[in-house]
Amino acid sequence: MTTQYGNQPTGQQHHGAPQRGTSSNVLSIIAIVLGVIGFIILPIVFALAGLAMAIIAKTVRHERLSTVAIVVSAIGLVGGMVLGAIFANM
Questions:
Q1: What is the spatial distance between Cα 83 and Cα 75, in angstroms, rounded to a whole number?
Q2: Among 80, 36, 28, 90, CA closest to 58
Q3: Where is the composition biased (Polar residues) (predicted)?
Q4: Is the pTM value of this prediction over 0.90?
Q5: What are the residues whose beta carbons fall under 8 Å from the beta carbon of 84, sequence distance 6 or more?
Q6: What does the alpha-carbon distance between residue 5 and residue 64 come to, in Å, rounded to a whole number?
Q7: What backbone phi and psi angles, to 5 degrees, belong to 65?
Q8: What is the DSSP string of 27-80?
Q9: For the chain, which residues make up each domain, given as ranges?
Q10: Quick one: which of 72, 85, 82, 24 has its CA closest to 46?
Q11: Can you tell me the distance from the alpha carbon of 62 to that of 66, in angstroms, rounded to the nearest whole number?
Q12: Residues 38 and 72 sit within 8 Å (Cβ to Cβ)
């Protein structure tokens, strides 16, 4: 038994849900910048904030650059603390 409408297209196209993390890497880029700044000055403040933003970008927003941001911020945190300890003992 067929209906009046059948399987005719309605003019509406289903594109599916938009993919997350493919167009916006804003938090990841900010986290990378904060990690680099944290390597130079105040790693406890800047690199730690960058690390927190990178983790949020990874878990909540699923950004592609978030893994890079985590690595850069972690290196900025540890490296900045070591660099500060070296300069403090001079």
A1: 11
A2: 28
A3: 1-13
A4: no
A5: 43
A6: 44
A7: -90, 10
A8: HHHHHHHHHHHHHHS-TTTHHHHHHHHHHHHHHTS--TTHHHHHHHHHHHHHHH
A9: 25-89
A10: 72
A11: 8
A12: no
Which of the pair, 64 or 10, is modelled with greater confidence? 64
Residue 23 confidence (pLDDT): 65
Give me 59's structure tokens: 């878990």
Tally of CB atoms within 10 A around 59: 9
Residue-wise pLDDT for 37-47, tens only, equals 999 999 999 99
Asked if 62 and 21 count as a contact pair (C-beta separation under 8 A), the reply is yes
| pLDDT-above-90 percentage for the chain | 72
* Residue of 80, 24, 79, 27 lying closest to 57 (CA atoms): 27
Token pair 């059948």 is found at 6
- The span from the CA of 81 to the CA of 9, in Å, is 63
Give the H or E element holding residue 13.
none
